[in-house]
Amino acid sequence: MATTPLVTSANQVKAATTTNKQTEMYNFVRNTFKKHHVRGIVMVVKDGVPQTISYGYAWYGKRIGNGSSKVVYPTASLQKVVTAAMVVQLINETKGTNKEFTQNTKISRWYPNLKNADSITVGNLLTHTSGIMATGTEIDRGYNYSEDNAIKWVINNINASSSDEIGNYHYNNSNYILLTGIIKQITGKSYEENLQTRIINKLNLQNTYLYQNIPKTMTDPISYYSNGGKNYQNATYLKKSLVSQIPGAGNLFSTPEEYYKIQVGLADGSILSKDDYYYMTHLKSKVINYSGGLYLYNKDNIKNAYGSFMGQHFGTWMQLTADNQNGIVMFLNQTDDNENDEKDVGYEILQHIKPNTFVKR
């Protein structure tokens, strides 16, 4: 009896190869997390193909795993680029109106009672070169702030604190909290409303929220500490009072998949055009490679942002190639509270994705 020869199409071979590569990446990432005693979730992008890999529990007590559809993660300072993008949108939209402003506009227009405001520009806030050195934005004051009250506290705190010379780089949440207030004053709408219309709706994001808007059917993760010993120790969580203190600088929650969509939207016309993205990341006031919420490396071919909350065991790190074809979006909820240790985890994965392409720190 004649037999029919087995015919394997090129597409079948490609699909099988892709599956094998993704299985290998899945095992590598989980083993890397295990080796470093971290827990969390990471979107790995390799040659334009995204793959989400999770490890451990987002909430150990309820056995809710990282990667559960119920969980949205704090983006921490990875939110700053979103705030910066909305400012650039407004720079474009206000051209030719009585609200027109640029990166060179002094912020005394919006904050006449703020120390040094007549010398600090919008660009200084966007590049952390305002000279503002005030501390305390991440120390929980035990009070649930509105956007307005959070901004008022920051103004008073800056006025009562010492400052450095304008033009010197000092990473400080206060800069982006002030930008949140500028967005509100220009539009007459809250940061929350602007985020919804300018980012979430434009990208059709379904699982990206400010903290106060996380649905009851969803949860943010519990965080845990591990220094190489036992897992799921020293459990803590982000309290509403703490998160409410840092609007525009650390109150956004999302998933790796949706945060990746935001990164793509920064230059494909969804949020900003390529020219606008360049403007945001090459502000005249920048003195290091930070501008508009991102660090750029390797002749602008790599973009990078890190975030955490002081003593809260969370670590967030995004590093992608400029074309968004390779890299990671990593949200950790068990760490040893050491930024470099967290980045070591991500860098091992990045080296596995595309060796000698990314930066270690």
UniProtKB/TrEMBL annotation:
Locations listed in the record: Membrane
Signal peptide: none
Chief localisation class: membrane
Keywords carried by this UniProt record: Membrane
Keyword Transferase applies: no
Organism in which the protein naturally occurs: Lactobacillus helsingborgensis
Protein's UniProt name: Beta-lactamase family protein
PANTHER family on file: D-ALANYL-D-ALANINE-CARBOXYPEPTIDASE/ENDOPEPTIDASE AMPH, PENICILLIN-BINDING PROTEIN 4
Record-annotated Beta-lactamase-related domain positions: 29-345
GO cellular component: membrane
Entry-linked InterPro entries: AmpC-like (IPR050491), Beta-lactam-related (IPR001466), Beta-lactam/transpept-like (IPR012338)
